[in-house]
Specification:
It comes from Gluconacetobacter diazotrophicus (strain ATCC 49037 / DSM 5601 / CCUG 37298 / CIP 103539 / LMG 7603 / PAl5). The chain is α+β, with helices and mostly antiparallel strands and 427 residues long. It is built from 23 helices and nine strands. Helix content is 52%, strand content 10%.
Length: 427
């Protein structure tokens, strides 16, 4: 049940809590745009994350508003005022106004007519309490109008101050409406929670995981949240809670290795969702990429870590702190510094499991170097007298091996001379 009556304000001393004025301090261009929007839509309010983060004194990025006017009226009013507007989600009541290059997402107040755990059919309403009641957590259910008053029907402000991430109303109901809220709970608890997580939420999440609720979600939505958890704060604590509720086993059914990830975190690895996923999960990179629908770039990065469930597979080249200059040049000739750096964190975690100045120095050196580039191509081999065909690639590879053996130092002229010697020797 809400702590306050619907529609009442909580802690609304305007002089101290004028969030639009506070926004002018942290995001001056955002306040100027808001003034233009409020001139057109005076009943609109800031909602969700922007209110939460302004109250918490955190950086603000997205500026989301809600308004009682239906979306077609919002669209018409903004266009009449000469404000650029894009119909980004009319089916869900959302348009995006663009002022001085900054987007402002404006959504008509809604209530859920029907939900299936993945999607909701909504209807417009002019009742702010109805709209707030459909939001996930109390800290995300606050709103603030142009007068600076914070409207808080569910005690979100007190929860924010206490570090208590709590579902609006009954947790099981909120999760049945959208199972993605299971993962969102862990993400928000890591960022805003303190101490023991909400018991009712944890019980509802465990029940939902056991019932297979997460299986109804698209892989893209799951990875979107999991990526934020893995790259966010308190990652080990979050994953521990996910293990406790059975969520982690549902997401990674082939198994996972929390101690391995703990060693990586202890080594000082920066938040990196792909690196953390590769060290944590016991599935092959290909299987993980397919299940989570990773992008091509993400899948390639995951594969480049050299983590595989096949113990017979060869380990890719690993940068070592003791590697000499030529060895480092050879590694960079084969792979980008970013790949080598990511792989070095995995190996450091396995071998050291603690911070290391030597490994840090290696990474800094790799990133500072220009990548050696082999200066010849197949056309050079043909120009040297080798007929087009499979032999061209074989000869080119032999010259590249010679170039690599010399620490990737030879320039084009020296490589051409070596190519010509090889062609003459095999003529």
């Amino acid at each position: 049940m809400p702590r306050d009556r619907p529609g009442m304000t909580y802690g609304c001393a305007v002089a101290a809590d004028d969030l639009p004025c506070r926004l002018a301090t942290v995001l001056p261009d955002g306040r100027a745009g808001l003034d233009r929007l409020w001139a057109v839509l005076p009943r609109a309010r800031l909602v969700g994350g922007v209110v939460r983060d302004l109250l918490a004194g955190r950086p603000v990025s997205d500026l989301d508003l809600a308004t009682p006017e239906p979306p077609d009226q919002v669209l018409a009013a903004l266009e009449a005022a000469g404000i650029k507007v894009v119909a980004t989600g009319l089916a869900h009541g959302t348009v995006t106004a663009v002022i001085a290059g900054r987007p402002y997402e404006i959504t008509t107040l809604r209530r859920d007519e029907r939900t299936d755990g993945r999607h909701a059919v909504v209807a417009w309403t002019d009742d702010w309490a109805e709209d707030a009641a459909r939001r996930d957590f109390t800290i995300n259910a606050m709103s603030c109008g142009r007068d600076g008053v914070v409207h808080d029907a569910f005690g979100g402000r007190a929860d924010l101050e206490a570090g208590h991430v709590r579902f609006v109303g009954d947790p099981a109901t909120r999760i049945r409406e959208d199972a993605l809220r299971v993962l969102r709970f862990f993400r928000f608890h890591a960022r805003y929670g303190q101490g023991t997580p909400d018991a009712a939420a944890m019980a509802a999440i465990a029940d939902a995981a056991a019932a297979g609720a997460l299986s109804r979600l698209s892989a893209e939505r799951v990875w979107s949240e999991l990526r934020r958890i893995l790259s966010g704060p308190a990652v080990m604590e979050s994953l521990g809670l996910m293990e406790r509720t059975g969520v982690l086993a549902r997401l990674l059914p082939e198994g996972y290795d929390l101690p391995a990830l703990a060693r990586l975190v202890a080594a000082g690895a920066p938040p990196d969702a792909i690196l953390f996923l590769g060290v944590l999960a016991r599935a092959t990179p290909g299987l993980l990429a397919a299940r989570l629908r990773l992008s091509r770039a993400e899948a390639a990065s995951l594969a480049s870590l050299g983590v595989t469930a096949d113990s017979a597979a060869p380990d890719p080249e690993v940068p070592e702190p003791g590697a000499d200059d030529d060895a480092r040049r050879r590694m960079l000739a084969n792979e980008a510094a970013e790949i080598l750096v990511r792989r070095s964190w995995r190996v450091q975690a396995e071998r050291v499991g603690a911070p290391s100045a030597a490994w840090d120095g290696l990474r800094a050196d790799l990133l500072a170097r220009a990548r050696p580039v082999f200066p010849l191509a197949g056309r050079d081999v043909v120009a040297a007298g080798v007929a087009a065909g499979p032999r061209v690639g074989a000869v080119l590879e032999r010259v590249r091996d010679w170039w690599m053996a010399g620490g990737c130092r030879a320039g084009r002229r020296a490589c051409m001379a070596q190519l010509e010697r090889m062609v003459a020797d095999t003529a």
